[in-house]
Amino acid sequence: MINAIFAGESALLAFQRQLDVIGNNVANSNTTGFKSQTVGFADLLYQTLQLGVAPQGNIGGLNPLQKGLGVRVASISTDFTQGTLTPTGDPFNVAISGNGFFVLDNGSDQLFTRDGTFGVNADGFLVHAGTGFFVQRSGTVGEGGAGLPAFQVGGDNRIVIPPIGTAVPGQATANVTLQGNLDAATPIGGSTSSNITIFDSQGNSHVLTLLFTKTAANTWSISGSIPAAEGNVSPNTIGPVTFNLDGSLAGPASGSMTVNITSPTALPPQVINFDLGNIGGFLGLTQLGGGNSAAATNQDGFAAGFLNAFNIGNDGIITGTFSNGQTFPIAQLALAVFPNQGGLLRVGDNFFRVSPASGDPSIGTPLTGGRGSIAGATLEDSNVDLATELARLIITQRSFEVNSDTIRVSSEMLQTAADLIP
Predict the structure, then answer these.
(1) Is the pLDDT of residue 72 over 70?
(2) 1 has pLDDT over 60
(3) 75, 149, 153, 200: which has the highest count of C-beta atoms within 10 A?
């Protein structure tokens, strides 16, 4: 009877722990990115009343006699299944679809979270809205180079978000793509023209006129000009441009012209390279029947622009959209994965911290190394299932009551035994 009391007591303590966990789950059913927990139980100790006996002779053997001495909480595990993704419209609300955690820095420690409620602080850094901790980036995206503007500082993993209205300088046109057909029936000396807007090194636009002139059978020249008041093109001719009998390009695959801008101010000569297509192919310029369609279809220059909006792609790249129609990468969010994410320590505020059981984080970019994808303007809901928690609550309550009865009955039996004493 004494053992029954202690077994019941251990059960009451264990179910109290389960009730605590269920209560915490229910309380966090609306917490962004919250992951629910589940309690696991294990039997405690056993008293062996009789050892087992092996079969021998005419005796078939005996099983051991043991009685249990209670229950204990063996584990409190975290359920990391995906929560529902809910759009919010805020470009700096971010959710993870799949594995991984956002990486934050509080100045002395790294923390990890599924809560992507981010915002921009007064200094222009992307921070966790609830704590002000700095959101971390990965790689060199946004550090500039290759003609891209720089927004981030190399070696600093904090994310700088430029304010709306931030200007980016224009980029001079360096490459133009030519495509389309030159009519094979055009007589020698005949021509067709095409216009394209190009940009100088200050981002000013100029109309470049290209004149395609047939100079001989299957042979053309291409000359360029800009308005005389703005400057000139010299040298301004690509040619001879020749075609095979099947109408495919025979050569050259490329050429260049030099544009000299004198208006509004004198600028250095601007060399523009022209891509005419692939030799022997039909992807660039061709000479076939059916009319002229040759034109400059694309160029890589642009005017100065001002930041209008942000977007975060599924690869975690924060992109800025500018008034000149250009988009530039601002930074790329970092994600961390762990050998054992169930071993992470919860530290409140939706954060986890590394523990010896979790292993070290592997920090990289979304969509790599088993890391999930990013959903911008979206938050991940709690994965708590209230129906499941309420069912567990009922079972816990009933188990608590039954084990209370074990203690009560044992107490009554002890009292009865005590009453037998004269």
Answers:
(1) yes
(2) no
(3) 200
Domain range annotation of the chain: 2-80+382-419, 85-167+307-378, 175-299
d(CA 38, CA 385): 12
One-letter amino acid of 80: F
Residue in this structure with the two tokens 């700088």, named with its chain if needed: 160
| Residue 341 per-residue DSSP state | G
The answer to whether residue 293 scores a pLDDT higher than 60 is yes
Question: What gap in Å lies between CA 121 and CA 354, rounded to an integer?
Answer: 26
Q: Could you give the C-alpha distances from 416 to 2, 407, 411, 412, in angstroms and in order? A: 14, 14, 9, 6
- Residue that the structure tokens 């100029």 belong to: 206
CATH 2.60.98.20 applies to domain 175-299: yes
